[in-house]
Amino acid sequence: MHNTSCAIRPFWAPWFAGLALGAVLLLTFVITGHGLGATGFTTRFVAWLGLQVAPHATLANDYLGGMAEDGHPLSSWITWQVLGVVLGAGFAAWRAGRIRWQVDGERTLGSPRRLAMALGGGLLAGLGARISAGCTSGLGLSGAATLSLAGFVFLATFFAVGLIASRLVRGVK
Amino acid sequence: MFALPEVASGLLCGFLFGFVLENAGFGSPCKLTAQFRLTDWSVFKVMFTAIVFTAIGLTVLGEMGWSQASAVFVPPALLGAAALGGALVGAGFAIGGYCPGTSMVGAVSGRADALVFLLGLLVGTVVFASAFVSLEPLTFAGDYAGGDTLGDVFKASNWVIDAALFVAALAIFWVGGIFERNAGGAITAVEAVAGASPDSVK
User: Fold this and answer.
1) Could you read off the pLDDT of B158-185 as tens digits, one per residue?
2) Which among A51, A85, B54, B101 could bridge B14 via Cys, Cβ 3.0 to 4.6 Å?
3) Min distance A83 CA to chain B CA atoms (Å)
4) Which residue of B has its CA nearest to A10?
């Protein structure tokens, strides 16, 4: 229990992980005609949550209303894909001894500050991904793989602002 | 309601996606944000390798006569919207330690901060939906009329674009390797699991 580090298996080499990710993405395109994503689900989840908490306001909302009007905003391919991500990542982490309950970043930032930054970072990412109709997976990775301009523009500003922001704000280290 | 093939294909593609992301080390906010500190280039390397692999794969399938290759979803060239969204997701990544997909990987490997990031993601979506009437023009911003793909802009075939991206990927591995050696090597699984938590020993 004190020294679990010898049970932790190493990460894959980046070239291998990259080829594997490319194979999964290509398989997804061949099966479904589109790529992989993440925020398609969280947006539908917000619509679903809205229906439970404030159905009138949700149905009246110009953005969420259309998704919620059939009563089943979660009834979508992306919901199953995200459930798959959770299962696949959980299986990989469990198999390699890489599950550990923690607030990652606590040591360098302190727990309250780290959690506040995680909340704020999530908020910015959630807002941004709705403006561009896609996140790092849906627009950056999947979009760029179809050689789309929007995908590469997304990646360019994503990395440029990330580089600058990580110099201005002390994040997880 | 749920056609079985859709459930099966969603679960299959998602499972493999999550399995690869975790094995790449992308559940760790230390490792992910080290890309922006230029001390660990795994994010660049993995993403670019995957993009090049899939792009070449789609080109080959198209040449082999798979008719659906030209019908895959290509996001429209709303370049202002893409630039602004990318900037906000990049800032959120540097500040919060994750992007939306990787926060799911972080959460299932036991990170409470990743769950809080996911909560922030939902809040950000509510903020967007609440302000949609005023934000909607941003989602159409910068519509580029010259085409949706790199091939359209550079008037080049997909093979030429694929080749250029392949060379760019090699350059990333070469430059990234130099930076990583100067920084004392990429973040290992042991370091990532220990995390930046109080009792971790580096």
Assistant:
1) 999 999 999 999 999 999 999 999 999 9
2) A85
3) 7
4) B189
